[in-house]
Amino acid sequence: MIRTFKMQLTIALLSLTLAGTTAFVTKSLCPDYVGRWYQQSELGNHRPGIEKCVHTEYQAYPNGTLSVYNGAIGEDLEVQEICGLAFCPDEANPAQCQVLFPFNPIPGTYWVLDTDYENWAAVYSCTDVLGLVKAEFAWVLAREPVLSPELLATAFEAYTSRGIDITEFETTVHDDGCTYEKPDPTCADEL
């Protein structure tokens, strides 16, 4: 089986070379955005009653969509959750996705402005409302509950380099009272 794989890989690389295309191949996997992320800061998405411990999990489905699970601890110290589906309609722009939640029949934009996949991601959403005003949302996400100040600054650079004002971002609290376990059952079970 390994011999067959090596032969297929050799043929594929030879085909690319003969076609005039060069490929850079290393022994590793491509970066992956799925998994758990912890909200570090947000813009325009503050939900009353959602106080701290905001986190999200993305899981890939075989059809190319992603399940989106958002969890948090509310002011009543109960787990709050919301689930939806994400899809990226344009293969040429895989970082420009849309998210659909059950309470909103219109998908929202979800653009990953920049990420290193291992530590942080800068996500942005902006929708024109009747051509008069904009609804702007943004999230700084991290793979750990607390991101270092240096990496947080790097994530904010993704916004400022595009002229997006970061002065209104609100910091998300992650402390010893946080729990990141999903309730059973969870809204993700209904997707």
Task: Provide a concise account of the structure shown.
It comes from Tigriopus californicus (Marine copepod). With 191 residues, the chain is an alpha+beta fold.
Molecular structure report:
With 191 residues, this protein is α+β, with helices and mostly antiparallel strands. It has a single domain, classed as Calycin beta-barrel core domain (Lipocalin, Beta Barrel), CATH 2.40.128. Helices cover 15% and strands 38% of the residues. It has an eight-stranded antiparallel barrel. A hairpin with a 5-residue loop joins strand 2 and strand 3 (66-74). It starts with a helix and ends in a 20-residue tail after the last strand. The relative contact order is 0.19. It comes from Tigriopus californicus. Pfam families: Lipocalin_2.
Write the layout of secondary structure elements.
Blueprint: H1 2-18, E1 35-43, E2 50-60, E3 66-74, E4 79-87, E5 96-100, E6 108-115, E7 120-129, E8 133-142, H2 149-160, E9 170-171
Antiparallel strand pairs: 1-2, 1-8, 1-9, 2-3, 3-4, 4-5, 5-6, 6-7, 7-8
Q: What is the rounded Rg?
A: 20 Å
**Number of helix segments?**
2
Query: What is the H/E order?
Result: HEEEEEEEEHE
The CATH class is: Mainly Beta
The fraction of residues assigned to DSSP E strands is 35-45%
Overall pLDDT score: 82
Quote the distance from N terminus to C terminus.
Answer: 37 Å
Number of domains: 1
| CATH architecture group name | Beta Barrel
Q: Overall 3D geometry?
A: globular
